[in-house]
Every structure is written in C-alpha cells, then in structure tokens.
Protein 1
Amino acid sequence: MGTEGWCLLLCLALSGAADTAQSFSAVERQWRAVDVVLDCLLVEEGQQRGGFVSKENMVKALLVLKQVPVLDDGSLEGFTNFQLDTMATDNPPVTFEASVNLIQIPHAEALLHADCSGKEVTCEISRYFLQARQEATVEKAAWFITNVQVSGGGPSISMVMKTLRDAENGVILHPTLKLLQGLQGTVQTAVELQVTTRTPSLSFLLGSSASLHCSFSMAPSLDLTSVVWRLQQKGSGQLVYSWTMGQGQVKREGVTLEPEQQLMAGNASLTLPGLTLKDEGTYICQITTSLYQAQQIIQLYVQASPKVQLSLASEALRPTLICNIAGYYPLDVTVTWTREELGGAPVPVSDAFFSSLRQSPAGTYSISSSLTAEPGSAGATYTCQVTHVSLEEPLRASIWVSPPEQRTMPLGVLFASSLFFLVLLYLGLQRRQATSSKLCQDSEAFWAATLLPPSKKKE
C-alpha cells in the first residue's frame, strides 16, 4: 500500500475511534508500537561534500520509522502497520526503513497525527559524512541525516541513520543510492542519534526568563562529548554556553544549562534570565557524541509591550490631541483613531500626523500621533487604538472633547472672578488708607496735648 492510502486509512481509523478515545482515562492509555510513515525529499548531492542543492538532485522518498512507541488513547484501534506497495507506480519513491530500537523518538504522536490534524510535515534526507579519522575506525557503511519539522510550531527532529548489513539484504543494490537493499526494495537503517526541540520558535517579553528546549537520545555504544549553545545575531555568531566532558563554560551572564544528571539523561535545555534585546536571535543547540554530531535551531524573539497615553494638548477652537506610544519592540506598530458622538457608533478618523521615531538606550521605540479634533456642537469621544505583536489585544485610550462654547466658559468665569477680586482688593486698600489717616490725626492731637508747656496749656 502506498503512503497516500496508508495515511487515508490512518485518518479514517482515528476519526472512527474518536468516540472511543473520549472514554479512555489517562490511566487507561497504554503504549503501543506503530509504524510512522513520512513523505520526504532525498537530497542527492551525494558523494560531493558541500554541493549546492537544487530540484534536479532531489527525489521523492519515504521514511518508515519502524515500531515507534506512542500512547494509545483508543484512536489506534484497527491501525495496521505500513506495507510497501511494489505495484503502485513505475517510479516508486526511495524507501528508508529505520529501526528506533537504540534511541527514543519524542513527540511521535505529533508525527503520526500530523496529516489528520491539518498540519504539514517537512522531511528532508541527505548524506551524512563522518570525519576522516572516524571513518577509519568503523566498518564500511553509509550514513544519512534526516530533518523533520511539523508546521504550526510543532516539534523539530534531526536523526542520524546508519545503513544495516545483514544476510537479508543479499547483494541487491538500490538503483538510486547504489546501496544494499532489502528484499522489498527498501534501504534498511537504524537511528543512532536524534536531537529534538519542541519549540523551534519562541517569543518572550523583555526582562522575562526564557527556557530553550533541546533534548537528545543516542545509541548505547556512543558517548556524549560536548553540548554547545551558540547565538547567531545580525550576521555574527557568539558562544553562549559550552559543556565538554563535565566542564561548563558560561559566556552569557546568568545563563544555566540543566544539571548534569539531567544532561546525561538527554536534557540539554538552556535558561536565559533577564532577557534584553541583545538576546534576540537564532540559537543553535549542538550535540556531539563520540561518532556523530547533530543540532537544532531555535528562533528567539524578544518583545516589549507599548504604553499608551492620550492627552489634550490644546483647547483652541479646534483642539489638538496627542497619543504617545512608548517603550515597544519590535518596530512595527499600528495606530488608529476613532470618533464617537453621544449615542452614536465609533467612526474611523484619518488625517493623523506622526512624529519621528525615537529609540531608547535599551533599544525600545517610541512615537507620537497627533490629531486635530472636531467635536461638533455636542462634543465627542476620541479613541487612540494601538496594535502590536506583543499584545494579546489592542490597547485603547479615550478622551472626551467638549464643544467650543463649553471650553470658553471657564475663561469667562475666570475673568469675572479675577475682576471681582481686584475690586474687593481696591476697596480694601481704600478703607485701610482712610483708617490710617484718621489714626494719624488722633495721634498728632494726643502728642500735641501731652508735650505743650503748662503756660500754653492754661492759655
């Protein structure tokens, strides 16, 4: 049976068992070994190392991960393993059968159910070349590396596969790869190393802590020699953290790798505390064993949410409104205005002006949007709405703009109050002056009577 028919039967089985699956509790779920079949592209730059890839050297391929353990919630009832249809087409795809007995395949459910859940799986297989000194120490074989990516933020898996040589393969050569193949025309391989991330793309807010997931599984015959995290940013690379044979080297302040017992169990996740904009970029988790090397790429985006403030800058007959948007990152931001009269619906307003872009020392951006309001005879509410990738929903700031006559009334009241105060002040000064004059006259009479000589007093 071809891969399309196999996937169709799988989806029908999953759909028909949906009601049954709901009756299964978490305790009742059991592990079950199934074949996971993926449509892939085989890159045939082949024996030339570092050759360019084009459509001409890509051929269709199938990857059959044999007997992968997955949790069965009841939806796998009636599921059958993959059978190759040798009569399907004149140009059958190159089929790789890969044993996973030596390693673990995480997130196998995501690979198994991808087609039925509407997600796409990108799978590419290419040759893997050992270093010269390693090739001399191993038996004659061929190696391939497979990169699998599930769309919609799904897991990403890289696997190193080694071809098998046994009696069943005989002496038949695969017509494309020139490798020994099985009786059914498939290339028999075993997965000996896999490196996985469940989060190929992440977004975190400025100042928060980020955990970058990276895990691996390797054959028992291999030894872990190093774990290296690098950051690619704006065309340059830098070391973030490295672990080599038990010795850790920190290049970014505060960064931590999982404890060594977790690392030896296959958890190479990295934690970045106190994110700054300098932490944004492409992170590479590279796992090196005694024979192989594989990696995962994680894109980290740092975001800062904007703060919005709306104010009335001028109370002229046509008042000016200013909406300040501050402290956001990345650069793209959308600002819209609406006007709403009492009892009416919001109406979009255009003709807003924007200031020049400003950038803080931390790298965040700020901008201002100004608008000349026309409140009308009854007044209106103006709203500034800001949309940004860091926000789950837009931010809004509103202000009521009164009609012109209401805005001039306070000025008249202020003038009348000031005039009244001045009149009172003037009358008070006049009264005080009159009182002071009378006091001076009484004082002169008193001293005149007191200081005159007795002869003058008798007269």
Protein 2
Amino acid sequence: MTHTVDATQELAAFLRTRRESLDPRDFGLPARRQARRTPGLRREEVAELAGVSIDYIVRLEQARGLRPSVDVLEALAQALRLAPAERAYLFDLTRQRPRTTDRPATTAAPPLARLVTDLSPLPAMLMNHRFDILAWNGEMASLLLDFDTLPPSQRNAMWLCLMHPEIREFYVDRERVVREGISHLRAAWAAHPEDQDLIERITEFTKGNEEFARLWAERDVKTPGRGSKAMRRADVGAISVHFEILVPLHDTDQRLMICRAADDESQSAMDRLYARRRGTPHGAADPAR
C-alpha cells in the first residue's frame, strides 16, 4: 500500500466527496418528485452551478485525465462552496499553484530555536509541515512530556497523539484533535508530493491505526491557525489551553505553536507542572536538540 499522490484519482475522489457533502436545500434547488438516490448535489447541478458540461464533471469524477484550467477550478470551488483550505487543496492537486523546491525543514532555524526559549513562560514548540517537533521549551515539555526522552522518529505530534500511551489519553475531545491534525496532514500531503518521509508517515498511520485510516478517508482539509485544547492529567487535573500557530516568512516550512492557559484554574495547574520541572535537569528545554 502506498500513499504517493495520484493527483488525478485524488482530484476525482475529492470532488465527489465534496459534492456529496452538500445539502441541496442550501442552494434553493427545487424539490424533486423522485427521491435522491445519492447524497448531496447531483452532477448536473454542480455542472450548472460551475458553468461547465455534465460530461466534464463526469470525466473529472472518473479520473479520466482532465487538467482543469484556473478559471474552471475557480468555478468549481465556488460551486462546491469550498473553504479556503479546501480551495488551496484543489489547486495543489491540479498543480496550478507555484510551489517551492526547498527541502522540508528537519532542524529548527537557529533564530526560531532561540525564540522558542525566549517565549517562556508560555509553552511553545516548533514543527514542520509533517508535525515533526523540531524545538520546544521547558514549559511545553512540562505540559506534554519530556521530548528529549523520545527517539527522533517519535518526536512527531501526530505520532504522539495516535501511538503514545500517555498522550493518547490526555485530550478530552481526542477525536477532534486527531481530526484537525489529519486535515492538516492531507493539505501538506498535496502541497508536498515529493516528500517521501511524509508519504511513509501517512502509510504507517493508515496501516497501524484504524482511527487514522477512517478519518483520512473522509478527506477533510483544513489548516487551523488557532484553537483550543482541553486536557485531563492524572497529576494536576484539567487543563484548557488556547493555541496560536504562526508561520515565519523566512522559514515557511516551520510552524511556531504558542499556548496559553484558557482560565485561572488551568494556569494554576500549569504552574504546578512548571514548579515540579524546575526541580529537575532542564535538558529537554534545549530547543537546538
């Protein structure tokens, strides 16, 4: 089983799943005498909305080798009411957007590594598009776990959420966290078709984790830049955090994640974690590792 991007097949599946997810009532379409045999909009309805022929939609959804123009892609995105991340995914699949030839980041850019440290006492870490964790500060290690104790292959936010026995149980709304992570990975997968390491990661997760395989097949595409996560730890209790993800202009493959407590009770719990860590060696706070 391989997850190398077959753009034609993926485009067909993506268009079909987006069409089937739409509610005809949202488009003010007239009621039909016969019940709809398939969910969502019919192909002829999408064709009319996009201003293309029904045969063109059929050929696209059957992966028959079409390469839509930018104008057609814009029309399809509007007809299917794609969100910004979904629209970007559509353009990536058809190779209509300029893409960088830079190799994916595997180490933290030194200025960003220093910034991660300087952000203390806010928990912060640096990742690449694969969710590989490239740098972290002591507060983030306290909040999640001591990344320095893990082999490099396991310093990956998605791997930890899916596979690590302790982290798996942290999140109160675990499926939402996993779903959001997968939707980001799908966008990254289309934007970086040459990234063999990412392809191998996705293959590993799909083969080894039923939950990932199920959610991956839904083809959700999002690139969340901020949000909230609720955790429950046996040692300090409930912790809710708000997070922000920033992309540096000079290192666009690196993503800086910054967290802060969502309420006073969460801050108190985090302070207890930090105090406990200050009594131990601070090795994992070294972001250059």
